[in-house]
Amino acid sequence: MLSTQLDTKDLALELANPQILLTTLRQLRQAVYEEGQEIFSRWRSHIQRPAFIDSSLNLAYYLALRRHDLRHLQAALMPWGLSSLGRIEARVLANLDAVIATLAAVCHESPNPQISQPPLESFFEGDRLLKIHTQELFGDTLQQRRVRIMVTLPTEAASNYEFIKQLIQQGTDCVRINCAHDTPSEWSAMIAHVRSAEVEVKRSCQVLIDLSGPKIRIQSVIVPQGKQHIEQGDCLWLKRDLLNNGDSQSCQISCTLPEVVDRLEVGAPVWIDDGHIGAIVEAIAPEGALLRITHTRPKGEKLRPDKGINFPNTDLHLCPLTDKDRQDLDFIAANAKDVDIIGYSFVQKPEDIATLQQELQARLSSNTKIPAIVAKIETPTAVTNLPELIVQAAGKQPFGIMIARGDLAVEIGYQRLAEIQEEILWLCEAAHVPVIWATQVLENLVKNGLPSRAEMTDAAMAERAECVMLNKGPYIVQAVAILDDVLTRMEAHQTKKTPQLRALHSW
Q1: Residue 507 placed within a domain
Q2: Is residue 438 part of a domain?
Q3: Residue 310: beta bridge partners?
Q4: Alpha helix locations (H) across 119-270?
Q5: 94 and 74 in a common domain
Q6: Residue 479 is assigned to a structural domain of this protein
Q7: Tell me: the pLDDT tens digits for 125-151?
Q8: What is the model's pTM?
């Protein structure tokens, strides 16, 4: 420990010398350039959109940069009044070159033609590209607000035109139609109402169709007679087939994907109902898996059909496109002129993106508008593969990322959610890819009419994304109006990671 502290102190003293700091920065810049070029060369064949070439190259440089621990460099740059590289995401080389050129002038070195002060426009090129890619995905927004608002439509939107009109009037920029609910007939009615309301309100609103994906849910439940809740320490059978055989000794469930039992191993964690119930696989038997409940509230939890089940650390080998999804793609293809975005659940690998692109290509004629794709990031595998997912998708069509914070928190652990959420935001900004901040935003307000303090802070922090998604609820119209106000106010204080130092009037 002492030697580490001495090493850290020695390094800080060395970097206090501007000439040593300059040499270190030049070495870093060279390493970032070489490693970034090598990463980009692996991606180049997947990039067909010329508009994404510069963005993917910047992403490659950012990945190369973040392989290094920059904390000592950041501390050494601050006393010189130079950029400490903390907001470098959108413009990696331009930022490094500017710092190097300025520090070289401090050291009275002659200008280096290879690394000179970059032109002014290079500092704003990343912001410009992100704005373009966001407009491609979401269209234009109100002038006073950068961040878009997306709303999940309830069933009533199919029969209530005034409801959709009010949503758009209050500031909704995009509506989400969840294919896990309702029918194509209702989806068509929702889309028709959106297009009519656009004309009447004179505001554009994008339509996102969200494919259900292979969401694993409880199918059936059997509980012992008189038992109301499952509690910590209880046993729970996850069975392939659930027959009510009168066994009153144990709780039993079946799920919508029975073959998942074959992929479980003893010791594997299982989470039910968005993490309200935690369990560990205790044994595997011919009829199913025996789970031991490790986590519930003190009074226990109810087991209900249709609640989700997550299997962190278990590779389920699931294709994110189900047979139902393919049928829903037929609907999307038939309504391609009115469908702007496809939401893609449970994406894990670039091959998953390629599968959706191929399915779309097979259904759309050559002169048909190709919908954009939004990939929902909800597993550790998807986080690990995020750069390649971005390249595969954005290299061919408009693309965005949704941070599906509910499933992601269950999969990676709630204590890591804030950390991973930040890293996803940084990576997407480096790729100039828009991000949707999703899951339980203003949930109490939407459902009960009164927000909690914590969720108001969460909504304000969402300003760092390009879009915020609200779920359905009886107070959704009021929630849109409040979120519109919060985002507009926060934009005066912060843009992405950058504080905006407007004049303060509170004191």
Answers
A1: no
A2: yes
A3: 271
A4: 120-138, 161-170, 184-201
A5: yes
A6: yes
A7: 999 999 999 999 998 876 678 999 999
A8: 0.91
- Nearest residue to 80 (alpha-carbon basis) of 16, 134, 30: 16
Residues 6+ positions from 481 with CB-CB distance below 8 Å: 170, 171
- For residues 372 and 342, is the Cβ–Cβ distance under 8 A? yes
Which residues, 6 or more positions from 507, have their beta carbon under 8 angstroms from its beta carbon? none
334 neighbors 373 (Cβ within 8 angstroms): no
Handedness of CA 196, 197, 198, 204 (dihedral sign): negative
How far is the C-alpha of 439 from the C-alpha of 257, rounded, in Å? 24
Question: What average pLDDT does this structure show over 347-371?
Answer: 93
Task: Return the ∠ at Cα 392 (arms to 131 and 408), rounded to 5°.
Answer: 80
Phi, psi torsion values for 410, nearest 5 degrees: -65, -40
Mean pLDDT score of the chain: 92
> What is the helix, strand, coil percentage profile of the chain, to 5?
50, 15, 35
Chain centroid to Cα 247, Å, comes to: 43
Q: What pLDDT shows up at residue 2?
A: 33
The domain tally of the chain equals 3
Whether 286 has a pLDDT exceeding 80, the answer reads yes
Which of 118, 142, 157 corresponds to the end of one domain? 118
Q: What are the angstrom distances between the C-alpha of 421 and each of 35, 154, 390?
A: 25, 27, 16
Instruction: Give CB contacts under 8 A, 24+ apart, made by 161-165.
Output: 161/193, 161/196, 161/197, 163/477, 164/190, 164/193, 164/194, 164/197, 165/193, 165/197, 165/200, 165/201
Q: Residue 467 has what DSSP assignment? A: E
Question: Is the pLDDT assigned to residue 469 strictly greater than 90?
Answer: yes
Pair 370, 451 in one domain: yes
**Could you identify the residue written with the tokens 């608002």?**
149
